Amino acid sequence: MKKRHKYILFLFLTFIILGFMSFFSVKTVIAHQAKNEILIYLDAGHGGFDGGATSYDEHTIEKDITLKTCLYLKSYLEKTGFKVKMTRTTDKALAKNKRDDILKRVSLINKSKCNIYISIHANAYPSKTVKGAQTFFTTRYDENLLLATKIMNYLYTVDATNQRVAKELNGKYLLDNTNKIGCLVELGFLTNELDLVLLTSDDGLAKVASLIYLGILDYLEEQNGKTND
Ligand SMILES: [Zn+2]
Q: Which of 8, 11, 34, 169 is the most exposed place for a label (fewest CB within 10 A)?
């Protein structure tokens, strides 16, 4: 219990610090790109009949965590002037089977005019010691690596021992078939005790969403810098 309290206090303090940081970042990004509307597509993995991964204690399902995180992220983005669309906003799949569901997600993202998309997932593994958030991307666009790296850089703040890096991933239908810049974020392992503490508290999910948000801002800022040079 003591450890848990310490952890929550840590999250709280980090959140405040990041809040200040994001305020200054947002000002810069908005100043550069006020004329252009930036649309960000958020994809909350799974939903409805498709629960995704399950926690080791079987109380937590991936689909609920991905949706909550996306809703936090959506609110942060919208409050600071970004446009946001989501592949789902409730606990519903986009089709009656998994294949059509993923086709629909890809189609929604591809038909949109989004500047970037972020697909959110949470992991599971037979060994409870495996842990840590990680971002994944394909090399279809150079910007994918930059976006995945920027988000990953912030995700280390929840776990300084996380050795994972932004990683190229092929064979995921959504990543392979989207024709927009984007990446996939695995929030952590539902089968790891510490990851699960973070991902089952609203404060924890709000924190993780804020880190993804900051990564997006860093990415946009860097892209802006390039176009303004
Ligand atoms: Zn998933």
A: 34
Main-chain phi, psi angles of 39, to 5 degrees: -105, 130
What residues contact residue 94 under an 8 Å CB cut-off, 6+ apart?
47, 87, 88, 100, 101, 104, 105, 108
When the pLDDT of each residue in the chain is averaged and rounded to a whole number, the result is 89
27 pLDDT band, cuts 50/70/90, is: very low
Does domain 2-228 correspond to CATH entry 3.40.630.40?
yes
Q: Report the distance separating Cα 183 and Cα 150, nearest Å.
A: 11
Ligand 1 centroid, distance to 186 Cα (angstroms): 8
Question: What is the whole-number distance in angstroms between the Cα of residue 17 and the centre of ligand 1?
Answer: 30
**Rounded distance from Cα 189 to ligand 1 centre (Å):** 11
What's the distance, Cα to Cα, between the start and end of the chain in Å?
Answer: 52
CA of 99 to the centre of ligand 1 (A): 14
Q: Does the predicted TM-score (pTM) go above 0.70?
A: yes
